[in-house]
Amino acid sequence: MSTDTLSHRHLFVPATDPGRPPLLLLHGTGGDESDLVPLGRAVAPGAALLSPRGAVLEQGRPRFFRRLAEGVFDEADVERRAHDLADFIDEAQARYGLAAPVALGFSNGANIAAALLWLRPEVLAGAVLLRPMVPLARPPSGRLEGRPVLILSGSADPIVPAENAARLAERLTEAGAALTHRTLPAGHGPTQRDLDLTTEWLAAH
């Protein structure tokens, strides 16, 4: 495992199974570049792992973009940070010789991954979004051309309203994504069922 900066502080774990696509690991609020590495190893053994730290601090806690309140996003910052993250992915692909990664994001990380799908879809081969929300009120009209996306929502999630998750799924489908949306009997945190479904989905895609 190596630590480097490029335009984002990050961890990189080289592949031991070159047949697997790399994973882009995107942590939730208050996480860092090490948070989702165990999850990445569990759901995609042998895949290269690229795990950046969010560049925004909220009361000392890393995030990928600013918010104005719980569930209320600074959309100008969402767009700016999504483009910055896409540029980092380009840098990392050149540095490490990577194919386009599949994003695996949780909460705030899932939200920035959804923004990447709308704003810079060419940098991702697909995405697994754990407990995401709609990141932009008026998403761009870019086409995702069958890009595979898995959304895993929690029926008892106190942070993400069911309507919001459903709206995100609808908009990604309208943009052309090959979308699977599952709602699990869970809260906001990932469960073993999330890990099992993610592992199965990654193996199939």
Automatic annotation (TrEMBL):
GO molecular function: hydrolase activity
Keywords: Hydrolase
Keyword Hydrolase: yes
Residues covered by the Phospholipase/carboxylesterase/thioesterase domain: 18-203
Pfam families named among the record's database cross-references: Abhydrolase_2 (PF02230)
Lineage top rank: taxon: Bacteria
Family of the protein in this entry: Belongs to the AB hydrolase superfamily. AB hydrolase 2 family.
Protein name: Esterase
